[in-house]
Amino acid sequence: MALSSVLRISSRSSYLSPVSVGMQGIRKWVVDHPVASSAVGGVVAGPALLVAVPWALGFGGAGIVAGSYATGWMSSVAVANGGGVATTSMVAMMQSVGAAGFATSTYAGAAAATSAASAGAAKAAQGATRWVKSKL
Q1: How many CB atoms lie within 10 A of CB 64?
Q2: By C-alpha distance, which of 39, 33, 32, 34 is closest to 117?
Q3: Backbone phi and psi for residue 59, each to the nearest 5 degrees, phi listed first
């Protein structure tokens, strides 16, 4: 069977229609409920950032990644401290987080904080929009 006929068959297939209907429903709900949808986004974004930031800096599960920002940071801290890195330093904490992660309660706190912050920002934007519209 030729690729063009496979593409025609799959494009006529209705198995994707529930997905597109679902996405339209989600999109409508987000537009109709900006504050609640911002809160939901915050619940997802907070814990994701807790994982992504140390990883992006170069603090991995097996230690500091060679050639990353973390290597330069650790080197400068070691030079400033006479050759060692203090266990209470930010580098040591980030290395620990990169290797072991945070406690579940920390992820829950981050989810709550980012949810509240994003919902508050959405509510403020909603109020500002209403105020501007009232002045027009």
Answers
A1: 22
A2: 39
A3: -95, 100
Residue with tokens 């209907």: 21
Q: Which residue has the tokens 């140390």?
A: 54
- Please give the tally of structural domains in the chain: 1
Residue 46 lies in a domain: yes
Q: Which amino acid is at 105?
A: S
Domain that holds residue 63: 39-135
Please spell the DSSP secondary structure of 71-121, one letter per residue: HHHHHHHHHHTTS---TTSHHHHHHHHHHH---HHHHHHHHHHHHHHHHHH
Spatial distance between the Cα atoms of 131 and 134, rounded to a whole number of angstroms: 5
- Residue pLDDT, tens place only, 80-119: 888 888 888 888 888 887 887 777 777 788 888 888 888 8
> Any idea of the CA torsion for 54, 56, 57, 58, to the nearest 10 degrees?
90
